[in-house]
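Sample pair:
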Amino acid sequence: MKRRVMFAGVAAIAGLLVPLAAATPPADAGTGVGCVGSDCSVSVWQFVTHHGAWGVTGTTPVPIDVPPPPCLWNPIGDATTGSQYIISQFGSITKQDSQFEVYQSVQQAKGLLAKPVAGTWYELPENPAAGPGGMAECLKLPLFAWVTPGNAPPMPNVPPVDLAEYAYNHIKIHKSKLILSPANGKGWVNLGTYAWTTNRVPVIRLSVSLGTETVNLIARPVKTAISSSAGTPGKNCGVNGSHYRPIGTAPKTAVGTTPDCGVLWDAPSTGATITATVTWDVTWNGAGAGGTLPPIPLATTSDPIRVAEIQSINGTGGN
């Protein structure tokens, strides 16, 4: 028996970066799984379970293109429609001629057709885009799987780094809070505004599992950088901005001193801003492997700041 093959033109990676869509059941043996366009994004990734910071990051980082999974489980129907499909295609197969447990699936389909219960039939065609190694993993699994609610089909072995990269595309990191001194949207020419960043938590963790494999992602803030629309930024920020403490209280410095982390204002402005970019390093481990993934920079911009001339403090003019 020749195992079905997923259309070579399927854009498997697309399903990793967009919401997973449900593929339509195959019409007949000659049409493979019947995927059309983005519907082929249905894949083993839909069976990932997760714990921790799962969601959309405050500012979306450039996503990683995850290699196509070795198999693309395709839902083909419930106890009635899925069973009818299997029987129509393989109802006459004998136990001696059967491969990939198709004979057993036919017998189970006949039983479900006689007494339907809740669940879904899945078909597992090969995915040529995954390469010889991935296809070999597919051949270790049955062609069909009956799955009751709350459960998943048997999963192929996916390279741990692929699972880690998939998790990277789904880790949720909130933007840092930006604290300035002077506060209240005020600043003065030739005086510095100091900046600090604070995070909801100092370490972000996400664990994802597929079948028996689990990998863990850990993201930590490692540096803060400042930029401004109307001033000279300091270049000596710590992980959380200015080194001066307590947070939110600027030190007493001379006129014209550039903050270690913040902005020395160059000219009056009614709408200057400060942007703090916090870079998070990402590491992963699990399933006997580990490594690093691209850092994630997240930028937070202040509300508009009115920068006035120093002499305006004494009422002698200026802005």
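Residues 177-314 form one domain.
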